[in-house]
Every structure is written in structure tokens, then in C-alpha cells.
Amino acid sequence: MYTSCNYACQPGFNASCALCCGSHNYKASFHDIDALFKERFKFFSNMLAKSNDIVSALKACYQELSHMTLPAIHPDATQCPFVAYTDSSHTIIGCLLYPYCTNFDYRSLFMGAICKTFSCSVNTAHYADRIQTAAKRCGDWYYYSLIIHDMDLLDLLCNSPAEHTIEECKQKAATMLQNQKACSTGIITKDTAK
Q1: pLDDT grade, residue 147 (50/70/90)?
Q2: pTM, to two decimals
Q3: Is residue 157 within 8 Å of residue 133, measured between CB atoms?
């Protein structure tokens, strides 16, 4: 999530993305991922509120948050324990170590090598207008993250003003994710093979 510009990560309109940190790398439903991110946010907030030594608190948080997880779609891919909701209304996801949560950038204490070297292909000025359009039209983190990283879906969403387009894009994004989950378990059914 660390880039020179945050067009894609935090574009506003209740949209956010932490796909690079594994926000969707769970063999789980949206409901289960939502509950996980709420649990992480609550634990993190409570832990920091009780501590005078933030570095020690963050190390303890890391240990505990690492156990608050769900099975991965891709076990060798990133599944950062600091990805959670970053606001009390549970609408925006991101990194709990990011300055907007702690007033200082603590990512380097844990997974800084990943955070500081990841280069998001859509997090550039070139895509800024399309990212803003997708954020406005999606208004969430779950589908927004998937749609902006699929150029066909992003183009469809941005080039068609029809209201049904957003639902079509969300359905296609959900199907793609479901197919990944099915492939990772070896369960391919007629419905998921489409």
C-alpha cells in the first residue's frame, strides 16, 4: 500500500484497496472477512489505547493478529495481519500501521520490505480519473479492489454510464474470485468453470 501517490488505496467515496496486502486472499465469504477485519480493528484499537510503549504494543499486536486469520486462497501469497478496517464505521480498509491509524509510519517494523517495494499498476496518475470513477460507482472496498485490478472490468465500469453496469461488474468480479477459491481447493464445478 506504500506508493508515491495513493490514488487507488484511499480514493474516497468509501472505497479503499489493500489487495497488495492480501485483503481478498481468504477462502471465506465477504461476511467472514468483514468480521475478521472488524475483530482486528477492535483488538488493535484496544491494545494501543492501553499502552504507553507503542513499539512493544505493536509487537504484541503482531503476535495476536497473526492468529486472527482465515485460510488463504494462495498460502504463499501475502496475507498481512495488519489489514483491517481503519475507521470505526467499518467502511475503509487499509494498514493499521499506516500513519492515518497511528500518527507515525510503523510498517517498517514488520513487513516493510513488502510494503515499501510493492508497485501497484493502477496506483498512478495515468489511472487517476478511472480510479475516481470506480470509487464513486462502487462505494465499497470489496468490489472496488477487485474491479480496479481487472482492466476489462475497469473499462466497462468507466465507459458505461448505465446503472446496471456496476452490478454486472460486481457479479463478474465475484465470479472471478469464486473461481480462484474453487481452483485453490481443486473443486471445480460446472458453475465455477464458466
Answers
A1: very high
A2: 0.88
A3: yes
